[in-house]
Structure formats: structure tokens, C-alpha cells
Design brief:
This protein has a single domain (26-163), classed as 2-Layer Sandwich (Beta-Lactamase). It has four helices and six strands, in the order H-E-H-H-E-E-H-E-E-E. The protein is an alpha+beta fold.
Length: 166
């Protein structure tokens, strides 16, 4: 009995280490995390007022919405990407239901996209941690995104942005 418990404990630890979504509920407290939360809250307010008409502003490089590694993304609650300011070729796709790429290591867009949706459905907003390849890099690294539920021109969705902890 005791040996089985130890095996179960070790198995749980191994699963948590290999999971593409990080189980902690928020990144370490940092100025970057506070900045991302404020950015997403402001973007949500703009989307609630102006809907998709605000998307061109989110796409402007060097703006408060798109700079360095920071960008706004917007999904419908079925997982369709309707805005990805940094990667517009992702728009129209649905990473929550698409097969995960096999050449990207531990990156699993199905897992973190589903986690984004689950977070806003159950909490309204929150942090999701996952592995992602930083632009200009070939190795996945931890990334944290803050997501918030919004209504986009009458459709339920989410808006988010993320950062790579130092």
C-alpha cells in the first residue's frame, strides 16, 4: 500500500512536469505581470465599447498594444482566433481543435487554448502558464498569459496578452 502511494506520487510529479499548461494559478508577482493584467483590462474595455473596430489599433507596431514580445490576442469561446496582432496568419484557425504540431517540442496549442477558454468560462479572467517558443528562439520557454472574457460585437470571447518571465 505504501509503495503504491509513493509510485502514484511520483507519477503525479512526472505528469505535472511534462504538462504543457503550468498548474500554478499565476506567475510570480512582477511589474510585467501587473502590466499585462492592466493591458488586457484596457483592451477588454475597448472591445466591449467598439468591438472588432478596435482591432486595427491592436495591430499597430510600437503601440501600447504591440511592442517587443507583447501583443493582444482575441479568441471566440469555440477557440477560433479572430485576432493575433503578432501572428496574423493564425487568425481564422482554431488551435483548441487543430492537431498539435509534431515539430515544436513540448508546445501544445490545444492544451493552452483550451485552458484560456476554460479559465474565462469558469473564472471570467485569470492566468494560464504554458510552454511557447519565444520569437527569435528555437527552444520553448515558459510563458504566462492573462485572459479575460469579453463580448465582441455580440459574440462571447476572450482577450489576452502574455509575457516571458525573466
Amino acid at each position: 500500500m505504501k509503495l503504491s502511494f509513493v509510485r502514484l506520487l511520483l507519477l503525479g510529479s512526472l505528469i505535472s512536469l511534462t504538462s504543457p499548461a503550468i498548474s500554478a494559478s499565476a506567475p510570480p508577482t512582477s511589474p510585467e505581470a501587473k502590466s499585462i493584467e492592466a493591458l488586457v483590462a484596457k483592451a477588454a474595455g475597448e472591445i466591449e465599447k467598439k468591438g472588432k473596430a478596435t482591432f486595427p489599433e491592436f495591430r499597430k507596431k510600437g503601440s501600447e498594444w504591440l511592442y517587443g514580445d507583447t501583443y493582444i490576442f482575441v479568441y471566440t469561446l469555440d477557440g477560433t482566433v479572430i485576432l493575433n496582432a503578432a501572428f496574423p496568419n493564425a487568425e481564422g484557425g482554431n488551435p483548441a481543435t487543430s492537431p498539435a504540431p509534431t515539430d515544436r517540442g513540448p508546445i501544445n496549442p490545444q492544451a493552452y487554448s483550451k485552458e484560456f477558454i476554460e479559465t474565462v468560462k469558469t473564472k471570467g479572467s485569470g492566468w494560464v502558464g504554458y510552454m511557447y517558443t519565444r520569437p527569435g528562439s528555437t527552444e520553448p520557454t515558459q510563458k504566462w498569459s492573462f485572459v479575460k472574457k469579453v463580448t465582441i460585437d455580440g459574440t462571447q470571447g476572450l482577450v489576452g496578452a502574455g509575457f516571458y518571465p525573466k
